[in-house]
Design goal:
- The protein starts with 5 loop residues before the first helix and ends with a helix.
- It has one domain.
- Helix content is about 75%, strand content about 0%.
- With about 350 residues, the protein is an all-alpha fold.
């Protein structure tokens, strides 16, 4: 019986052997992955990574923390600064939420339990990809965007509400030390907006970097992260191609066809599910191209793929969390549950928000 520690080593050796057997196919897959990174992911994510670094340096996180604390703690058991991660994560897509969560943990603004709750429901697709690429590009129907958005983002918020019960005995983190922000010069209680501005100012002073230094650091950090993201996309593109050449993808598709049949869904969507397990873009595209399966079923699979996020995104998030004590398992379970909830919401909301409504 193989020990768990030996499995990665044997897997790596098998991949090297497959690379030697199928070098041309691996090269083509590598170029495809590189093209996706350079033409889609780099221009979409790099500006958000730089901006998020700048906002952290300017103390915007502390501003959001003071403003949103009365709402985030009761709903999600997360400090108010989590509202900043929710906003940026939903606006800019994966893996920005994980990146910001890891940074908040490094700055000791959240603890492990709060970080695991936060990253579980802020790893979502960005609206531009959901509307422009999936609805219009893959399905050729902008009318599909409302039901996809409602199921995907609504499912994410439901995951956030469910994750408040995660690690229930863990203590809440203390508010960030922002000095004497509770009272003004006359001893009267400051308004929450004044406290937020004061907290932002204190955070900026404590950071201490000039604008030029801050911008340079932000660009360097964003480039390092983009290289990691690109490398993982290329690696998973190659792995998928090697599995396809060995017939492993078809075996997995057969299992998925059986599961879809039990669920009353068209077996033809199995290719979309299998592709989406590994990479979200390939899975969403395959769902849009699965003609004859019924638009509602296709949309449900697309919602599942968008919410599951693909193992490529999982690897990106795992690499970001590796520098912290945040565990990957809660994130994995949350992604799987989010995918199931999002697919179910498509069926529930179809009569109100679907293209035929």
């Amino acid at each position: 019986m193989l020990r768990p520690a030996v499995i990665p080593a044997w897997s790596a050796a098998l991949l090297v052997l497959l690379l030697a057997i199928f070098p041309a196919d691996a090269l083509r897959a590598s170029l495809r992955g590189l093209s996706i990174w350079w033409e889609v992911l780099f221009p979409a994510l790099f500006p958000f990574f730089v901006i998020s670094e700048l906002l952290l340096g300017f103390g915007i996180v502390h501003f959001f923390g003071k403003i949103l604390d009365p709402f985030m703690r009761p709903l999600f058991r997360i400090p108010g600064i989590g509202g900043f991660v929710v906003t940026m994560g939903y606006a800019s897509g994966y893996p920005v939420g994980a990146r910001l969560t890891a940074q908040l943990w490094e700055q000791k603004l959240i603890n492990r339990a709060e970080g695991e709750r936060l990253v579980a429901f802020t790893t979502t697709s960005d609206p531009i990809f959901l509307i422009g690429a999936v609805s219009v590009g893959f399905f050729h129907s902008v009318a599909l965007a409302p039901v996809l958005a409602a199921s995907h983002y609504g499912g994410g918020l439901m995951i956030g509400l469910l994750m408040r019960f995660h690690d229930r005995k863990a203590p809440a983190s203390l508010p960030a030390n922002t000095g004497n922000s509770g009272s003004g010069p006359s001893g009267r209680r400051r308004s929450r907006l004044a406290e937020a501005v004061h907290a932002m100012h204190n955070a900026r002073v404590m950071d201490g970097r000039t604008l030029g230094t801050l911008l340079q650091d932000a660009i360097q950090a964003a480039l390092r992260l983009m290289i990691v993201v690109g490398g993982l996309v290329v690696v998973f593109s190659v792995i998928m191609e090697l599995l396809r050449q060995t017939g492993s993808i078809e075996m997995l598709a057969g299992i998925v066809r059986l599961l879809l049949g039990f669920a009353g869904m068209p077996p033809a969507l199995s290719d979309a599910v299998v592709s989406g397990i590994f990479e979200v873009t390939l899975g969403a595209r395959a769902a849009g191209e699965a003609g004859g399966s019924g638009l509602m079923h296709q949309a449900a699979i697309a919602a599942f793929v968008l919410s599951w996020s693909g193992l490529s995104v999982h690897a990106q998030v795992a690499s970001l969390l590796s520098r912290t004590d945040l565990r990957y398992k809660p994130f994995f379970l949350a992604r799987l549950l989010h995918g199931i909830i999002a697919a179910a919401l498509v069926y529930l909301l179809w009569s109100w928000l679907g293209p035929a409504a």
